[in-house]
């Protein structure tokens, strides 16, 4: 007979999902009401307003797509691209490759601007691609590349796109709540994110935001959006400003309660404070990891504080380390992807999981399992270095 599923209590320090704040888990258990209930509609408006705060935008078309971040990505591409269009895609990791897939599935042509994994997108390469392709309609790039832990210069890349009469599509899945995201200041046209990273919400929702330029492009399409579910003109009938909402789909009511609570927590902490907390704990973790002899893939200037990608020491069975951490310490860290598979670990410090207790716990646990495999690490060196950093910031 199948039994009730009771998951173990883990500390999630991988690339996502992140630990969920107990306030958010509690919100999930609130009574379910109808997705057209006047009380729910009022909450929807609050979610939109708080998303505008998190994205730092006044875009009217800012809403949560009722599906994970990959659906938010697809929503941006299918609404802005038509068959025969050309899009310049900047690829410096796994998720730039997924952008390319979306372009091609829209019947458009993808022009790749490639940089090494672990390096930010090179604006000079994008400028050259724009000069070589004056008929391009879209520039797409990943702001915070989850596969490598690198941050690209979104403001510069969006400016280049605008100067060349291109719409910009920005992947901010790992960005929002962890580092600055400033849609209006960047001049970004379509941005998508996810709830399961630095917002510390449950997976399954993708916040998106479209500029007035993007809305105009959607309204001036000559072909239907290939996805009925993700067609923004249809979705806005449900997420619009009036109280008479048109039925589009049954929204994930309780999951949206959770997102509302998540955004409220972010608003109460304040964006700048959240960014500063991620930076503080990242630098303490980095001090500890480097004291243990581990090195980062990404140069310090471009590192994501919320996603730390470190090289695996010679002679270490990386999968066995992750298995030991999970089995013996209930601690999850992530493996490498693509050409970095087997070469790196991805250690997340996202949202609710980004705190001093987790930093010290991760360092102590990782040190122990590494020493058990024969790594030459001075006992307590990681925690000592992290503690020293925290003390220096008091």
From TrEMBL:
InterPro entries named among the record's database cross-references: Aminotrans_V_dom (IPR000192), PyrdxlP-dep_Trfase (IPR015424), PyrdxlP-dep_Trfase_major (IPR015421), PyrdxlP-dep_Trfase_small (IPR015422), SP_NH2Trfase/AEP_transaminase (IPR024169)
Cross-referenced SUPFAM superfamilies: PLP-dependent transferases
Chain's gene name: pucG
Signal peptide positions on this chain: none
Record flagged with keyword Transferase: yes
Protein name: (S)-ureidoglycine--glyoxylate transaminase
Limits of the Aminotransferase class V domain: 32-336
Its EC number(s): 2.6.1.112
Enzyme class, UniProt record, top EC level: transferase
Originating species: Sinobacterium norvegicum
Obligatory cofactor(s): pyridoxal 5'-phosphate
